[in-house]
Design a protein that fits this description.
This protein has eleven helices and nine strands. Helix 6 (133-141) links the parallel strand 4 and strand 5 (145-147). The chain is globular, with a radius of gyration of 17 Å. The protein has a single domain (6-266), classed as TIM Barrel (Alpha-Beta Barrel). The two termini are 29 Å apart. Strands 5-4-3-2-1-9-8-7-6 form a nine-stranded parallel beta sheet. It has helices at 25-37, 57-68, 73-82, 95-100, 108-117, 133-141, 156-165, 188-195, 212-220, 230-242, 246-269, and strands at 13-19, 43-46, 89-92, 121-123, 145-147, 149-150, 170-173, 203-206, 225-228. The protein has 278 residues and is α/β, with parallel strands linked by helices.
Length: 278
């Protein structure tokens, strides 16, 4: 059974992302485990793909480092088995890797293996809702969640198709464009949350969240969780470029995770009731 709902049981969830294998396998293990110590409620694990179309320069560079270090779907599954964390885990990757895995075409072998090693759900940025049927069926068979990304421009029938298939949580894209840490929080977020209010699934906001203050503002605005990737990947990249030890980088990741988790908790205290999201 998927553990994703557990992440939202005690209030808004802090959901960090890292590319698995960045900059190498052993360091990456330390980094992911540091995020849990810092307060992560659920962790998105990036399975690198050579054409990450939804990613900005920060995560693209992480993908390159990971692939150069030898990361593959098989190594990814070994990594998940070796991880010493207790929080739910979601795999973020691209559909080609899912479809091509195993001895038969289609997503079922990948989902079966992922469920076996402890992956609770999937985010697949390049998979349209209109073509998600086979993956949705495999997720249902193995009781895994399928998370979709909703952009600020997603409306009408397309929005309904996405929300009819989503489970676990919906990834609310805070701004248009690709991933990347920003210095401010988009005012599009509140509008996106309003459009999703009728659907009873947790709404986690990502794209651009960088500080504890950002996290507090997003949660105060009604989000059920925050998703942070680039701000954490930047810490990994800086440590790699400077030749810092894995332990030093892990400490910085843990501290940043704690800042972001504390921000989500402050955001709950700052909330003002919103009639459209009751």
């Amino acid at each position: 059974m998927s553990r994703v709902p557990e992440a939202f049981e005690d209030g808004p969830a802090f959901i960090p992302y890292l590319a698995v294998g960045d900059p190498d396998y052993e360091s990456s293990l330390e980094y992911v485990e540091a995020l849990e110590r810092g307060g992560a409620d659920l962790i998105e694990l990036g399975l690198p793909f050579s054409e990450p179309i939804a990613e900005g320069p920060t995560i693209q560079s992480a993908v390159v480092r990971s692939l150069e270090g030898g990361m593959t779907p098989t190594r990814f599954f070994e990594f998940v088995e070796e991880l010493d964390v207790d929080v739910p885990l979601v795999c973020m990757t691209y559909y080609n890797l899912i479809y091509q895995y195993g001895d038969e075409p289609g997503p079922r072998p990948f989902v079966e293996k992922a469920a076996e090693v402890g992956i609770d759900g999937f985010v697949v940025p390049d998979l349209p809702a209109e073509e998600a049927g086979p993956l949705r069926e495999a997720c249902d068979e193995f009781d895994r969640d399928l998370v979709f990304i909703v952009a600020p421009t997603t409306r009408g029938e397309r929005l309904k198709r996405i929300m009819d298939q989503v489970s676990g949580y919906v990834y609310v894209q805070a701004r248009l464009g690709v991933t990347g840490a920003q210095d401010d929080v988009s005012d599009q977020t509140g509008q996106s949350l309003d459009r999703l209010a009728q659907w009873d699934v947790p709404k986690a906001v990502g794209f651009g969240i960088k500080t504890g203050e950002h996290a507090a503002n997003i949660v105060a605005g009604g989000a059920d969780g925050i998703i942070v990737g680039s701000a954490l990947v930047d810490i990994v990249a800086e440590g790699h470029e400077n030749g810092d030890s894995a332990a030093e980088v892990a400490d910085r990741l843990e501290a940043k995770a704690r800042e972001l988790k504390d921000g989500t908790l402050r955001g709950v205290e700052q909330r003002v009731p919103h009639p459209e999201r009751q």
